[in-house]
Amino acid sequence: MLEGKIFYKGSFIEAGIEIDNGRIKRIGKLVKGKKVQGIILPAGIDVHVHFRDFEEKRKETIETGSLSALHGGICLVVDQPNTKPPVDNEDIYFKRMEIAERKSYVDYSLNLALTKNNADRIEDVLRRISARYHLPAIGEVFLENKNKKLEVGYEELSKVKGIWRISVHAEDPSLVKSGFPNFLYRPKEAEIIAVRKCLDISNFHFCHLSTREAVEIVEKTASSFEVAPHHILLSTRDFERLGNLVNVNPPLRDKGDAEWLLKNFSRIKILTSDHAPHTIEDKESGSPGFPGVETMYPIFLRLAKLGIIDLRDLVEKIARNPAKLFGFSDYGEIEVGKFANFAVFDLKDVRKIKAEDLHSKCSWTPYEGFEAIFPKMVFIRGEEVLESRTRIGRTISSHFSSGKEI
Ligand code: DOR
Ligand code: ZN
User: For residue 38, how far is its CA from the centre of ligand 2 (angstroms)?
Assistant: First the structure.
């Protein structure tokens, strides 16, 4: 039981929350409990993280990535399957879930990769996985990417159309060249054209859109999309500051594009970190990706406090919409019947981000020196887990599913 200033149905109320068996049983002024200082928001959901592990433990592990998520006020992550080796069959999927069950600090879910290895038996793989786990999406589909293991074309996408949410990294490979800094070699058109080609086939979930044009095209359709913090907060101008660290896919865009995304924050469906940790050495040889699962909620909460974005929008994009879109029906809101997942923030406690304070194994951040408001407490299914560092994370089994089974 707790009591405090709760974000409930879009505004704040002073009330208590009764928790029973990890779920919210009652919310009301008459409910008494331990007084919590600060504001109580729904804990965040990040549906796009790369926690590496397997053969890339030097970059990140499920353990370190999820600890970083926890310190960023995130209670549930969806991990991406472009691991080494990739998650493209049921055995490796189950193996990864077993690691998460032992190591994760937050609730954990995993997308399946669609690759040449599984394209001809994809329905069978889906059926076997979904008998045990809630599968949010067939994800991390790189369109005819150079990476042989993940080389899948538009045709394979159409085979699974209409069955699962399919998340696409939309950059047309024929328009992408390699070179450093990569923003000079991966033009906006690569994204815009890939989005158009995909929409000719079906509706998708578009990962981290980075251009105004792509957002404007996708929002007119039944497809969903996400935007990552770095495409809103950073631009090609940060090359001066970031130097060798600057590469990310899709690349940073011009200042005007980032400003447009910030100004139109309310139109974004989902905010995801695309937490893609690489070691400094790997960055120096050009690896694309930024860590971000720990800094996303804190930086955007600071922007909400400053009135640059609306707090209701933030909660919608970081908790409510991802829960709805990916079928996590017990998550995303402080509401009777849902899991008691909260992040508690003291809005007066503004801190400058320092890589050394963060918990990702990669040991750097593109947001060094940015102002942020980190959570004071995080509750997952009713248990305070930030201070206590309780490893409570659970995988999401198929009985949580939103009826998306085949
Ligand atoms: O910059 C990126 N890094 N973009 C992606 O889409 C993948 C990611 C990674 O896995 O490193
Ligand atoms: Zn990604």
Answer: 33
Instruction: Determine how β-strand 224-227 pairs with β-strand 205-206.
Output: parallel
Give the active site residue among 257, 274, 310, 330.
274
Which of the 8 DSSP states describes residue 243? Answer: G
The residue whose CB lies within 8 Å of the most ligand 1 atoms, and thus the one to mutate among 54, 140, 186, 249, is: 249
pLDDT band of residue 404 (cuts 50, 70, 90) is: very low
39 CA → ligand 2 middle, Å? 31
- pTM (two decimals): 0.95
pLDDT digit string, tens, across residues 280-331 = 999 999 999 999 999 999 999 999 999 999 999 999 999 999 999 999 999 9
Q: Is 238 a catalytic residue?
A: no
Tokens (6 digits) for 327: 């079928």
- In angstroms, the first-to-last Cα distance of the chain is 39
What residues are paired with 108 via a beta bridge? 77, 395
CATH code assigned to 43-332+364-371: 3.20.20.140
Average pLDDT over residues 197-209: 90
